[in-house]
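One such shown below:

_____
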Amino acid sequence: MPGFTGIDCSININECESNPCKDPRFECVDSVSGYACKCQTGLNGEGCQSSMCSSHLCLNNGTCVEGPGDYACICQPGFTGAHCKDDIDECASNPCQNGAICRDRVNEYSCFCVPGFQGYNCEIDINECASRPCKNNGTCLNEMDHYLCKCIPGYTGTLSCSCTTLLVGLHLAIHVVPQRACCWQV
């Protein structure tokens, strides 16, 4: 029986032992009754001369990986698709908060915050009261994008709590007590 040896022809002959595929681009595959010369992984075509990746380029620095009779592109972060052609829109998930504008970039995004917010995703409400803008024991109320002052009696103003001035006849009457700014009616 061809391809076998031994007293009862039960030992398979490995025809590839004699290296019948002389060209290193070929791989010898032993079969029951002979052998076949197949292209090494990564080569194809007549004479095993070309790589599938040489004719199927992956874009945007993607890496071509060959398999038996096929190839695949492994994309860099930020890209997708069979040839890594498509830029992933990182803004599609709406990462920017509080009315911020999202700008897509390659493998990242940037948020442009509206006034009163900060942080990578504009998630932090700026505390406009942190600088203690309300003078004269006024209470600062942190609002969206601004602050308001709630003044104690004798003071006025939404942004600072200044002394109240009274018009008495033709003269302005302001009374300042030493060591503390207070306004009194005269």
